[in-house]
Specification:
75 strands, 5-stranded antiparallel β-sheet, 36% strand, mainly beta, 11% helix
Length: 1126
Amino acid sequence: MLELIGVFGIKMKNLSIEKFLIHYKKIDSMKVYTSYLCFLIVFLITSCEQPVRDLNPESLEGGFQLLDAKTTGIDFDNSIKESAIFNHFYYSQIYVGSGVAIGDINNDGLSDVFFGGNQVNDGLYLNKGDLNFEDISQQSGIGNNEGWTWGVTMADVNSDGFLDIYVSRNGMSFDMADRRNKLYINNQDLTFTESAIAYGLADPGFSTQAVFFDMDNDGDLDMYQVNQLPDKKLLLVNKVPKKQFKYLRDKLYRNDNGKFIDVTRSSGISNDVSYGLSVSASDFNNDGWMDLYVANDYAEPDFMYQNNGDGTFTNVINEQLMHITNLSMGTDTGDVNNDGLIDLITTDMTPDDHYRAKMNMASMNSKLFNSMIAAGAHRQYMANSLQVNTGKGSFSDVANLSGVSSTDWSWASLLVDLDNDGYKDIVVSNGIKKDVDNNDFRNTLTDLDSNTSAEELFELSQKAPSVPISNYAFRNKGNLEFEKVSKPWGFDTPSFSSGMAYGDLDNDGDLDLVLNNMESKAFVYENKATGNFLKIDLQGPENNKFGIGVKARIFYGAKQQIAEQILTRGYFSSVEPGLFFGLGKDKMIEKVEVIWPDGKQNTLTNVQVNQFLTVKYKEASIKTIETNTEKTFLEQINTANVGVNYVHQENYFDEFTDEILLPHNISQNGPFSAIADVNGDGFQDLFIGGALDQSGIMYLQTSNGNFRKASSQPWEKDKNSEDLQALFFDVDNDGDKDLYVTSGGTENKRGSYLLKDRLYINDGNGSFVKDTKALPNIYEHTQVVKTSDIDDDGDLDLFVGVRSVPGKYAYPGTSYLLINNKGVFNKANYDIAPDLTNLGMVTDAVFSDVDQDGDEDLMVVGEWMTVTLLVNNKGVFINESDNYGLSNTRGLWWCITANDLDNDGDEDYIIGNLGKNNKFKASEEHPFKVYVNDFDENGTNDIVLSKFYKDDYVPVRGRECTSQQMPYVAEKFEDFHSFASSTLLDILPQDKVESAVIYEISNFESIILMNDEGQLRRKVLPNQVQVAPIKSILVDDVNDDGIKDILTVGNHFGVEVETVRYDAGVGGILLGNGRNNYKYTTPLKSGFYVPFDSREIKLLHSAGGQQKYLVLNNNDTPLLFKKNTK
């Protein structure tokens, strides 16, 4: 083998003399030898002329140059010719496109390109160097096989060291012979022989894509084939022959000595039929076995197959993903945050453009959505998902936070470092030749009758809008943030693109892109990145020479990256072999680890950048795997084992029936707890509130730290009221702790006796009696209760926060103070705190001496509220919010915690907001707004959320659901175009707008307010806890380093069906460094893992002095954690 590596790391050649001779076997040996020498000399000269990468780039630049077809020689055009009997009325998947595969088919060191065609034949282009290609489709033997190609992938199927080509066929034909997949075996002379039947891979299903991977770690390549039902339109007029049923399901083929055997039934692969479009193979749980993710279109949920290591797989989609995409198309895997864990992206079809979204997207049907969940089809949303691996057997979708949730009708999605800065970027191909889901176009079809001719249908089909749109590129900025760079990177040419792949076509150290287009020539994008790189080429074992399934980890400075050698990626496509790492301005890699599927490993140290590094299996060895012995900060305790067998049971109540446009429910805000020693034995006891129709429960702590249910449970008689915040305090100054419980929920209308708060008096021994006369008859939906000696008379008074006005979301409620008069409470006069009137939708509050004058001030937060500071001035509370820098703090606030974080003698404030992982984008320049009124005067509260678009405000929700809430909208705007083209004020009645409740929010971030010499200075919490609403916050020294840390819990599962559920939170520990900076610690390191709909976290002191952390979850069991002392 002749192996030449350039001085500057540019691969020159990898060619055996024997293989060279085969190409010229008809020439005599002397001519061969002479030709070979001449060729080699020319090649060395031209190779040395390739650009040398600058080891010290002044700046890290990214971008592409779209090369002209005349320059590259790649003129492939996957055009579709429609007719009266062939159009989208007869074949709904007519516009889904085809794939592209990149790989070096002749081992000359230059990657070649293969295109799949639908009506046109497939195409193969040979790389001649300098980004020039030759069409060798015909002479190679692959250009004459007609058929409807979808997925294409390259793999060395016969283990001869040359890439073969596998093609997945689909189309309209019910003749299995027309649909048999093709396997083109590489003859090593630029020709191929179709051999699918011989290898057992002539799958006759309606196939979409295949992935070759080693399912059993036996050293050869197995294959998973994505199949689907026939096109829905075909099923309307054709009956599937019974004998073909078995071909409609996905297939798993095991490689047995070079022959592929169908092991689908015995492997645990689902027997369900679906409309699968793509597949990714990846080791999600880092156990050394390749798992699978299959993206399914339409209602059938995606499959996430965990490899059990014994030849079988288990679908864990419901257990590991909190929700998924609805119309799943392309998918890819990779480590987006460089934490060593493999993440996942899946694309859907929601536009980010308001007009296109309102024209092309149907409203989500809540009944259908819920019925799908009940049937086990998971929570499916029409938005892209970027699932970040928690390392705990679950993923958090951060697509909204990252800004990649909406990319129109998207096909391929690739996670790949395109600017060589060390972070994987995202590129998405999209566009559909005809907007067949355009709502106005669909409405023109409602009057069609059975007599409509094929010619008339064809004429109608041509009237469907056709709008080429730009593909998307997102630069990974780190910290889970991406920036849309389609235009600055030159990736914004409008098109109808489908398959997409990457490879270093010019061997200059960055990855170029190739896209398969419909109705235009394929795109070839030359990458102009400036950063350093490392590419690892693999020489594998006998039956896996390209090292499929290999992982590589690199370590440099405090940074790390991981990559996996899997070629099938994105949509219908496969990428160039090799493990590519962008390195920015870094010049040296301290360690490279290459891990083979059988566990053998190569370790290299002090590796120079800007080179193609060849790593050989024969030089690998078994290495002892170092187990992580570092203990976590916390460990979880089974609550049942300590006697707490409580399970919160949320009652069913559909708030969206009357308030269709409600963004999320507010009837599921519990449970909350209260902790105190109620029986005087020196141990803290625990009360946990119940939902409506569920009693709260009191647990008494015993001397061994366990709990037992108290004999006194008087609140059982009040289970028809929903418990929210609860508080132990000494009402009557008798030295024991009494219990106050707020009554909330929106099930009961304002004025219902079930909304009256409750007070239970302690006899000193832990037995309680309800005092029916101690509280005034106020019947509001309350949630918050806090104590302070407001009137300075030696007893504790109360602030009670009203959560909402039931049935009137966003209308401000009036909160109030209750003054304690010898155990009887009276509502304080208006003059004591006038700003409590119409204060808002209060979610939490703290009494705290903000101004350091010796009395307690009141800080209140809530939904659509500013952070409100009422300064106590001799018993009168005055709104000083603006004077403390709180004027522009309106948010969807959920909680507030006071603590002197910087130990300067005053309290600082940590406040939980909605977080950044939501579709409601807001900024100071363009705030997010809500308009609330009975706009159509029909007696119901109308909620209109509004965002900025181009130069005005528009409604967030579409015409269909808006007109369900306000029927006049459908009458005023007879088509979707007129609605989509209108501003918010065009839609709403002007007089009703003038009297509406209007709020605007410029930021959704959870924050710290540092109390600094009369100003409350804002500090944003890390992005890792911005992934979900924060519902509760606790300050404690978790790691016992003498510095205060922050614990957070949250999420909010109860959202309307067009809003992606807020479920990405897994709890957070933010370690303090003593300088007011906080760093997120992963659940793997912290031991704190709370992927639930959490409401509260509290510190609970156990007998013996051990402290525990109690987390309460909506509609679930509580969690207990203790410090890890092992």
